[in-house]
Design a protein that fits this description.
By secondary structure, the protein is mostly beta strands. It has one helix and 70 strands.
Length: about 675
């Protein structure tokens, strides 16, 4: 054993197993071969270990401690180096070394070999070396803890530490404190631990990042990364994720195909470029590929909180399990499912699929592209946006809008409202009482079940009421269309003011009225009321007792079977009563009308008492105005009002065939 003095000593070992104590002073101790034990003692000492497995203790003072490689020795042994008190510099040498800084602010390097490097208390610089090292920052705010080359284990300990994995497959634990962690090169596993940590892998590689507890910022960098914001444990080789862990975390995947998963708390997740999977937890999360719309086909899941989800560029799949969410698909052909809660979903550019798969009063818009928009079980507001879209309401009382393009709108269940918008749309109401509006373009509108209100708008529209007592009409515009209308089953109200229209009342007791065009009206089954309006109309009543009015223009009226009331109206009209006991009403301004099949045994001619300006009182007065011309009876009522009964000789007529009407309002129709 060799001891120094309290002064600055130069002490050298032998090739044997030496024990040297420098005692006081700034000593230089140089160990040779052998398993040596060296104590620096007090003072700023320099100790070089040599080839053997040495144990070096710096003790008090700011010491320089080397396993052997920094001087003339090869340092090939497995050394123990402990700095002691003071700001020490310690290097481990070529062997498998243990380097411990102990107190104060130390700089430690394991050098070559499989080393364990331990900073201890204080703000330390800790570096692992070239092999598979274990590096601890320990207590204090360590400003550089680096595994260096190799597959390293790096621990920050307590304090706000700066940690690097270095080259190789590293595992880094920030532990307690607000840490900054960079995996550097290689495929790294990075854990933040407790505290508000910043975790990134700037060197690339396929990395796994865990924020653990606290408000963390996680950046994956290049490579295909997996990012978790909260606690994950590993048991038997499996992952167990804790979705209830809290913390307002930020997870950024950047380049590569990344996997990002948050737990509880209000989190921000961004996948960056690449095909990413992004999953939210139970907190109020903000998720996205990137807010600037980076590329990549991403899978995004919002979790249970009130989330903001952005797909960005690429064909994205976005799913949110619960909460009141706002979702933007952005560019690309996206598939979006809203989940539970009242969601606002916007498809953005591209041919998108938007679905609400649970309950909730949702607002969804396909925006640009040929989109599919499907509501769920709640009262939804759905819009196709631009281009040719398919919009389905689902259950609930929904509001549907087609927007631009040739859209298909279906209300499905519930009392729905649907507006087709521009271009030619296909609109169906489904069950219950619906309000459907075609607006611009040649629309096809079907009310289906329920008592529906259907409006056509501009364009050549086709409207079918379906079952129920429906109301079918048109918004008056400057762009009249030639429409095809059918009431369907039920007692329907149908009116169309413009265009040359084809109108069919179908089943039920219908009221049908048209406007200025040359229309074709058919009552169908039931006791119908049919009025042609202006124009040269063709009107047929079918079976049952119908009321038919031609309105202005030269009209053709056919009552069909049943006891019908025929009103020619202004213009030169031709009327056919068909079977049954028919009545024909003549009023002032009717013009010169013809009745083709007047049945003198059953039919009655009703005449307004003031039709010619002279008050008529009795049926005999009307019969006295009749003359026979060529086997036809012609009755000139004066005032440009006349009626011709074709094929009916005057001799066949009696006063029973005529009736004077004084109050038209009291006429039984």
């Amino acid at each position: 054993m060799a001891n120094g003095t309290n002064g600055g000593d130069l002490l050298a070992g032998t090739d044997g197993n030496d024990t040297i104590d420098g005692l006081g002073g700034d000593d230089l101790i140089d160990l040779l071969a052998g398993a040596d034990l060296a104590y620096g003692g007090e003072g700023a000492d320099l100790v070089n270990g040599g080839p053997g497995p040495d144990s070096i203790f710096g003790q008090d003072g700011d010491d320089f401690l080397f396993g052997g490689t920094n001087l003339s020795n090869d340092g090939s042994g497995d050394d123990w180096i402990l700095g002691g008190d003071g700001n020490d510099l310690a290097l481990g040498g070529d062997g498998n070394d243990l380097v411990y800084g102990e107190g104060d602010d130390d700089a430690l390097n394991g050098n070559t070999g499989i080393d364990v490097v331990f900073g201890g208390p204080g703000a330390d610089f800790v570096r692992g070396g070239q092999d598979n090292d274990t590096v601890y920052g320990d207590d204090g705010d360590d400003w550089h803890v680096n595994g260096n080359i190799g597959a390293d284990l790096v621990y920050g300990g307590q304090g706000a530490d700066t940690l690097f994995g270095g080259q190789g497959l590293d595992t880094v634990f920030g532990e307690v404190g607000d840490d900054w962690i960079d995996g550097n090169l290689g495929d790294d596993w990075l854990h933040g631990g407790n505290g508000a940590d910043t975790i990134e892998d700037a060197g690339g590689g396929d990395d796994v990042l865990f924020g653990d507890d606290g408000d963390d910022l996680l950046l994956g960098g290049e490579g295909n990364d997996a990012i978790f914001d909260d606690a994950v444990t590993i048991e038997g080789g499996s992952f167990f994720f804790d979705p209830n862990a809290r913390g307002a975390d930020t997870l950024l995947g950047e380049d590569g195909d990344d996997f990002l998963l948050s737990g509880g708390g209000r989190d921000l997740l961004s996948g960056g470029a690449g095909n990413d999977f992004i999953g939210g937890g139970q907190g109020t999360d903000r998720l996205g590929d990137t807010l600037s719309g980076d590329e990549g086909n991403d899978d995004i899941s919002g979790g249970l909180g009130d989330d903001l989800l952005y797909g960005g560029g690429g064909n994205d799949f976005i799913l949110d399990a619960g909460g009141a969410n706002t979702i933007w698909g952005d560019l690309g052909a996206d598939s979006i499912a809203g989940g539970k809660g009242d969601d606002a979903i916007f498809g953005g550019g591209g041919a998108d699929i938007l679905l609400e798969i649970y309950t909730g009063a949702d607002t969804m818009s396909g925006e640009d592209g040929n989109d599919f928009v499907g509501g769920g079980q709640g009262d939804d507001v759905l819009s196709g946006g631009d281009d040719a879209d398919i919009v389905q309401g689902g259950a609930g009382d929904d509001h549907l809008e087609g927007g631009d393009g040739q859209d298909q709108l279906s209300g499905d269940q519930g009392a729905d409202t649907a507006w087709g918008g521009d271009d030619g749309d296909w609109i169906t109401g489904g069950a219950d009482n619906d309000f459907l509006l075609g607006e611009e373009g040649a629309d096809t509108i079907a009310g289906d079940d329920g008592n529906d209100f259907l409006l056509g708008g501009a364009g050549d529209d086709s409207v079918v009421g379906g079952d129920g007592a429906d109301t079918i009409g048109f918004v008056t515009t400057d762009q009249a269309g030639d429409d095809t209308l059918s009431g369907g089953a039920g007692n329907d109200l149908i009116f169309d003011e413009q265009g040359d229209n084809l109108v069919y009342g179908d089943g039920g007791d219908d009221f049908v009225g048209t406007g200025t065009g040359d229309d074709l009206l058919a009552g169908g089954q039931g006791k119908d009321v049919l009025f042609g309006g202006e124009g040269s109309d063709t009107i047929a009543g079918d079976a049952d007792a119908d009321t038919i009015g031609g309105g202005g223009g030269g009209d053709r009226l056919d009552g069909g079977g049943g006891d019908d009331l025929m009103i020619g109206g202004a213009g030169h009209d031709t009327m056919t009563g068909g079977g049954g006991r028919d009545r024909y009403l003549l009023v002032s301004g009717d013009g010169f009308d013809h009745i083709v099949d007047f049945d003198f045994q059953n039919d009655v001619l009703l005449t307004e008492s003031a039709i010619n300006g002279t008050l008529l009182v009795t049926a005999a007065q009307v019969l006295a105005m009749a003359v026979e011309i060529g086997g036809n009876t012609v009755i000139n009522l004066g005032g440009s009002n006349a009626i011709t009964l074709e094929g009916t000789p005057l001799a066949n007529l009696t006063v029973a065939n005529f009736m004077v009407v004084t109050e038209l309002d009291n006429l039984v129709i």
